[in-house]
Amino acid sequence: MKRRYASTLFLLVSASLVFTACGKSSNDPKSSSSKNGNATTVNDINLTGYPIVQDKVSLTFVSPKNPLAPSFEDMTIFKNLETQSNVHIEWNNIASDGYQEKKNLLLATDDLPDAFYNAQFSDYDLIKYGSEGTIIPLENLIDKYMPNLKKLFETRPDLKAVVTAPDGHIYSLPYAEEMNLISMPNQMFINKKWLDQLGLPVPTTLQEYHDALKAFKDNNVNGKGTVIPLSWWFQGWCGNEGDLLGMFGAPDVTTDDHRIVKDGKVQYSLALPEYKEAIAYYHEWYKEGLIDPEIASMDAEKLKAKGKTADETLGSFIWWEGPEVVGEDRMKDYVLMPPLKNNEGEVVIGKTNYSEYSRDSFVITKANKQPEITARWVDQLYDPKTAIQAHWGPIGEVYKEENGKLVNLPVPAGTTAGEYRIKVAPGGPTVITNDEFGTLVDMEPRAKQRLDELKQYYFPYQVKENYPFVFFSAEDLDKINQIETQLKEYTKQMKAKWLMDGGVEKEWDGYLKKLDQIGLQELLQIYQKGYDDFKKNNT
Questions:
Q1: Positive or negative: CA dihedral 537, 435, 182, 119
Q2: Helices (DSSP H) in 256-296: which residue ranges?
Q3: Can you tell me the distance from the alpha carbon of 167 to that of 165, in angstroms, rounded to the nearest whole number?
Q4: Prior bond to 51 cis, omega within 30?
Q5: Other C-beta atoms within 10 Å of 241: how many?
Q6: pLDDT digits (tens, 9 = 90+) for 389-443
Q7: Residue 23 — φ and ψ, nearest 5°?
Q8: CA-based nearest residue to 373, from 138, 149, 37, 46
Q9: d(Cα 516, Cα 130) in Å, to the nearest integer?
Q10: Which residue has the higher pLDDT, 538 or 283?
Q11: Are 378 and 173 a contacting pair, CB within 8 Å?
Q12: Given Cys at both, which of 17, 42, 242, 270 links 253, Cβ 3.0 to 4.6 Å?
């Protein structure tokens, strides 16, 4: 999962890789070189082969960490990298929930590591700290010290464009996973055991869905009085309410920005009359007790906890994949519900603005005295086989190698593939292209299943347009951040209020005026210009 929710065998890379000789720093072409065995050495850095340095060097990295993951220093992948490179990383792992606050504090106080891994720098961060010199431009280091990434950029200039800022510099390194899964973050599951118990079919329409949820509640179908007919992650990046609301004509499954595109025109989904109609409709469901009473505070972990209660409680839920919520064993009671026809008999499925690419996976700070070594170290992760293992887990834990191909091992008993991946794969600056699936690596069984399901049920009905991955200018980012922060807070508050308490019909006109006071129309103009410029430059 973005965000990017947000994941090597470290085989010795062939010594035939040729690194371009370069200088003492990315801005100083002067250097002295010598031969060290079969490796070319410049300023004590081996430019070909491994180790990277003869005498061990230490670097300090800051990175967020999921609570389920071990300290990065204990991960097999980084132990193998250290053995291969002779570069030791001192990890400062910060809990993912508090990472942004602590990251910003480190930047504000100039208490900088050598690099941020899984950096999670916004576009605004990259422009601000790049232009100020807090993080350094990387294009010269890529050209001279990063042959894996340099080769990738030569064959895939679109990936280079992803990380190139409007000022022409590259301040951060890319991440990519080309599996075609991210555009559809929601799947709807329903308790088939309970449907069978009540003699009901799997719903195919919105009305049938309503009736099934009501039957679950009215018949106390688990016999415990604890039935929750429907729950989801409120405004989550996945498993959200976007497609439920979208059935009324404004599918919005990107809860970060609510940008949708219709016939080339950028619109704000939460300001459209279709949204007003949808939220009024689902308020009636809430009044009937069909929607989780705690829905406004529902997050990913709470949803998973409700799916794994001792007594089965969830009648239906929305998520990325079912077993993560209810567990592998209980999943046998649930089925995937294909997209529903709305009350006009149409199927409408949204498409996220989330990209399979990101540009925030690794930055080097001005405090780093050895950026060349850092660049060589991180370039290891752009070797395709290494990237795969950083992303999903190493050989011996997640994979075995057969005829040069990485094949999935069984997931250990008592855990799901998603949970296990968190424990063995740090993610980070990696690129796995579509060409590598089936040739270099087997797609995860759960990913393969999900892709097949999306192709069969969802993609045929998915809207064709979405908002592209635009890198805005510093001026535009200033304005976007100022307006969007207020919009997100206000619209989320009103969505929760209207869903649970009602009142959208009375308050709608005042709501629209408030959106414009915050700056919605100016924001839409910026969005539209960014969209038009992107299309012009990428067609």
A1: negative
A2: 273-287
A3: 5
A4: yes
A5: 26
A6: 999 999 999 999 998 899 999 999 888 888 899 999 999 999 999 999 989 998 8
A7: -90, -170
A8: 46
A9: 32
A10: 283
A11: yes
A12: 242
d(CA 450, CA 458): 11
* Count of all residues that appear for the chain in the document: 539
Place of tokens 């961060």: 125
User: pLDDT tens for residues 184-202?
Assistant: 999 999 999 999 999 999 9
Measured from the Cβ of residue 234, the count of other Cβ atoms closer than 10 Å reads 22
Contact 257, 266 (CB under 8 A): no
Give the model's pLDDT for residue 42: 57
Nearest-5° Cα angle at 124, 121 to 127: 95
In this prediction, residue 5 carries a pLDDT of: 37
Inter-axis angle of helices 273-287 and 474-501, nearest 10: 40
The pLDDT, as a whole number, for residue 19 is 30
Residue 41 pLDDT exceeds 70 = no
Q: Which two tokens stand for residue 395?
A: 């050989």
Q: How far apart are CA 198 and CA 113, in angstroms?
A: 60
Contact predicate 253/242, CB 8 Å: yes
Residue type for position 184: M
Residue type, 202: V
From its phi and psi, is residue 79 left (phi > 0), alpha (psi between -120 and 50) or beta?
alpha
Structure-token pair, residue 11 = 């085989």
Residue 528 burial (C-beta neighbours within 10 Å; 0-12, 13-18, 19+): middle
For the chain, the straight-line distance linking the first and the last C-alpha, in angstroms and rounded, comes to 29
Structure confidence by residue, pLDDT tens digits, 436-485: 998 999 888 888 999 999 999 999 999 999 999 999 998 999 999 899 99
Model confidence band, residue 40 (pLDDT cutoffs 50, 70, 90): low
Q: What mean pLDDT comes out for the span 373-388?
A: 96
- pLDDT, residue 174, reads 96
126-183 residue pLDDT tens: 999 999 999 999 999 999 999 999 999 999 999 999 999 999 999 999 999 999 988 8
Cα–Cα distance measured from residue 539 to residue 172, given in angstroms and rounded to the nearest whole number? 25
CA–CA distance, 433 with 439 (Å, rounded to integer): 11
